[in-house]
Every structure is written in C-alpha cells, then in structure tokens.
Amino acid sequence: MKRYVFCVFVxxxxxxxxxxxxxxxxxxxxxFNYQFQFTDGTQTLNLSGQLTTSSIPDPSAPISATGxxxxxxxxxxxxxxxxTSAVVYSSxxxxxxxxxxxxxxxxxxxxxxxxxxxxxxxxxxxxxxxxDYNIFSGGALVILFGNLDNGAQAFDTVVSxxxxxxxxxxxxxxxxxxxxxxxxxxxxGRARCLRLAC
Length: 198
Known about the structure:
The chain has helices at 2-14, 169-195, and strands at 29-39, 43-54, 67-81, 87-96, 107-109, 123-127, 132-137, 141-145, 152-161. The protein is of the alpha+beta class. Strands 1-2-3-4-6-7-8-9 form an eight-stranded antiparallel barrel. Strand 1 (29-39) and strand 2 form a beta hairpin. Helix 1 runs antiparallel to helix 2 (169-195). The longest helix is centred in the C-terminal third of the chain and has 27 residues, at 169-195.
C-alpha cells in the first residue's frame, strides 16, 4: 500500500501545475507579430511582419514601465491605390533607424497603453528601397512615409506576442525531482526483489 501511495505522490509531483513565465521573460529578446494599415483617403499602406524587443522594460520609457526597446524589425510594406486596388509600392523592411533623442525612441508598449503601442516619438525604420517610415501615436496611431499624406491614420492595428510559453525554473526543478524520485523507487524495488529472490 505504501508503495502505491508513494507512486501517486511522485506522479502528482511530476505533473504539478506547470508554471509559465511572463510572455516577456523570453530570454534576452521577444518577438511580436504586427500588422498595421494606414490610409490617407487615396492610398492604403499595409505593414506586416515581426518586431523584436528586449525582454526587460526600458526604465527611461516616457509612458510607463511596459515600454520595451525595439531591437529589430522584419516584414513587408505595400501601398495600394484605394480607387483601383492596384499595388503602387512594395518593399521589404530592412532595418531600424537608430533612436534619435526627441525624434523617435523605438519603444514598443505592451500591453498597449491608452496612447497605443507607441508614444509620441514612436519607431522609425527603413525598407530595402531606402524609404524611411516613422510610426507614432499622436492621439491616434499615425505614420509619416513617402507620398502618403503626413498623418495618415491607422484603421487596422494588431500587435501580438509570438512567444512560446517558457517553463519557469521551478517547473524544471519539479520535473527533475520527480524523475529522481521515480529512479529511487525503481532502485529500491529492484533491491528488495533481489533480497527476496523474486
């Protein structure tokens, strides 16, 4: 009877409630999927891809402690004419522009604040055609880019985590202790069996 109670205890220990780390405790960097659509009435700009951020909040973030430094961007940029739906511009995003004090700070706010995913300075990046983009929050999410009327407003904005849950160290420790307990139980059972000449 004791043996069965011990086995049940070990199984419960191994399968104990697994902890999942905070989504931004994802190593040194976190990845977010994004999709932004902006229109100025005549054209629509669609940006989609992935943002890479640090996993530690930036203490200098102007809005709150949920601001994370953006360290990379990938994706595509497409502009369509609203009247014909024809693609008038298409490019692959190439790189972030280095932060410029009081111009853009490249900080992502996640979860989204009342101001949005970016602050008044926002994020700036370049595509493979060397065109510059600046997305920022000015009451609404707006973008400055090429021929789009300055201040084109977003009408579809999605930023979502692209992070697999990472087990906490305590989960790994419980798993290790459970395996050690199973090994010990198997070893004791074999030794008892040898003593009794099973």
